[in-house]
# Entry
Amino acid sequence: MLIENGGIKMAEALDIIETQQFDFIKTPQVWGTFESVREHLFDQFQNIPFNPETGLSLEELQTEVETYLETHPDQPKVLQKANVYRIVVTCGQIYLDPLDWFADKLNHGGLVTKVRNEWYHEARSGAIKTEASWFDKVHKIGLIRGGLDMGHISPGWENMFASLTESPLLSPAENQRTRQFEAERSGQRGEATSGLQFSGGLTGLIEQAHKTRERLGPKATDEQIAFYEAVETVYDATITLANRFAELAQKMILDFPEHEVRLRAVADVCKRVPAYAPRTFHEALQFAWLMHEMIEMEGELVRSMGHFDRVFYPYYRADIDSGRLTREQAKELIKFFWFKYHSRTRGSGNGKNFVFAGQYADGSVLTNELTYLALEAYEELNTPDPKLSVRFLPETPDKLYRRVADLIRRGHNSFVLMNDIPAVEAQVKRGKTWEDARAYLPIGCYEPAVDGKEAGCTMNIEINLAKVLELTLHNGLEPISGQTVDENRKRSERIGIHTGDPREFENFEQLFDAYTKQMDFLLARTVEYVGAHERQWPQINPSPLIAGTIDDCLAQGKDIGQGGAHYNAVGCVGIGLANACDSLLGIKKAVFDEKRFTMAEILNAIQCDFEGYEPMRQYLLNKVPKWGNNDPQADAMGKRIADYYCNKVHTFTNARGGPVQAALFTLTTQWTMGKVTGALPDGRKAHTSLAPGVGATPGRDMNGVTGLIGSVTKLDFTETPNGSVLDVMLHPTAVKDDEGLDAFVTLIKTFFDKGGYALQFNVFDVETLRDAQRHPELYASLQIRVTGWSVHFTKLSRFEQDQFIARNIHTMT
# Structure
């Protein structure tokens, strides 16, 4: 352990590290190799040739883990998990690729996650068993989903990197800025850092944990003592792993003398990080990547890799100014680094989020040389992963708008473009300071959380706003397709509450009141169910590795699952807004305003999937105003639904003491929930896709992108603190040449000026996609933006390809 007799044993190590020379890294023959090894690196996580001499086999590790758990049955879960982690990372087999700049391969076999999963199943069969069966049912029918979200968290990157020791590698001005920034962070982190000077890196976090535990003395609870011990255990084990990589790299020089320069660089970097604060660009990237791998191995998904051009810029700038790296060499390191994420997903989507631009905590605009260098690297990589979130302000340089728009129109579409104005204000409305809100990261896709301060579990709840209406129209019963209304009453099961027989409603307000009551019931029950999960979080998935990087966890001695973070949110995602809007307006106009059809006729038609009711369906499709066309009636209805939903969500508090926060987007749920949603009074047939994001029902936005933006920007996005996005499909001719690029940038700025939240684009013609279906071998690199991530089109199933084309065909022709 690094902790010994209440102090840190690091003086000797620091003396060695500080005298290291970095000139060897400039050796010419080690650079310019990425393209020659790209194909090899694509398979870097497939069939890894672990050397048995480097550690225990998976079978032996499994035995060690089982033995430990059997002999420590009464130990707190956080310590059990920490020690399982310790066994795996200190004893498991490792591997280094001599062609790679980064160390990362550990043969862990998912053992830590398996333990977590066993604990989750124990909880499901115990404390939350009764409600679990009901929620399994409503999830299956596509109505609502609720549970514990352990996959939308980001560690505090700056907290891990931070060092209050002046770096000899930074300019005086940069050191002054760093000292000021880190002093502010120390004050924000509370008692744990009060009056202390820390070493940075994991060693600094170990020291914080140790000193805080000492300060608490006899006042420390058993839970706090266990938490601090767990933090020290996992960080010490991670440092040991890095040292193992360093030793292996040095040994490999004998077997791979032609790669000595690179292997020696890897060895020296691993001696430094993550034990101590990084000083160079290479060290910072290695630190981030190893922590990404270890946190995911521990049982969380790292859904943001931080504010890249803010967090990593000082290291890049210092290397460039000192001559340790050229601009091209730094770009190549980014390529090696980012290609790992692509090698992980292999173009199948759900990549990792890197954030660019936006603003500093004081509100000043953020862009720098690294912003544009990273975009260059992304363009040259031409991969769907990682995904890039670019934050914009009115003062953001036009150069960045044009650069991003140009990349998108040329097929590089792994972007979400975010408007800082509503995104930041939405966070402030939910109780964050302006300074913290400006430090938000899009977690996962477009869900903001404060860097290093928030456990922003953004996907706890997903509610199908269209299915809520379907439930309302059947008085809380689950509808059975193909049955008459009266037959359905006899055979179906009650899922919601009694809100009245819609055939007896005398006006539209009675219907809308019934709709909101069903929504209220479902949200309240689901928030309580999520709370039951969250109360079990410390027993299901204690997370000392990530918790130690989050503000207030160390100060309080509380894990993130115990509400230890400074901010603790739960996300609720609304799906199918356009379908709910168009359906309610269809009933209002057809039944109550024009009295063209009776409610009974509407109900029988949707029960029969409009079989025998085609004239009615055509009326509902074509004669009723639709969301997405800048129509006052439709927009008022859509806004009314969204306002009610958001306001209701914000009345709840989660089990960790934080807010429940509303969102409006779909990811892939427009397909998965659409498959189990019946026909609707907007003319939609049963089991077809719902509307994506906050966009129009597929094929119903007849007034182009201008009409679509006109509708969407009627919504108040300061009331969607958990995120939102508008998907836009453009034909290539619309953004062709300089005039097209000008128009594209104007479109983006117009959306933002009107208060829009976020945008993501596809630029295609339908024939290209049809040809890719016929000849996939010719389109292996064709990328599309499906939802919160980009994928290779040919990697999608035929169903998914057809759904994507059908959703956008009217804009691509």
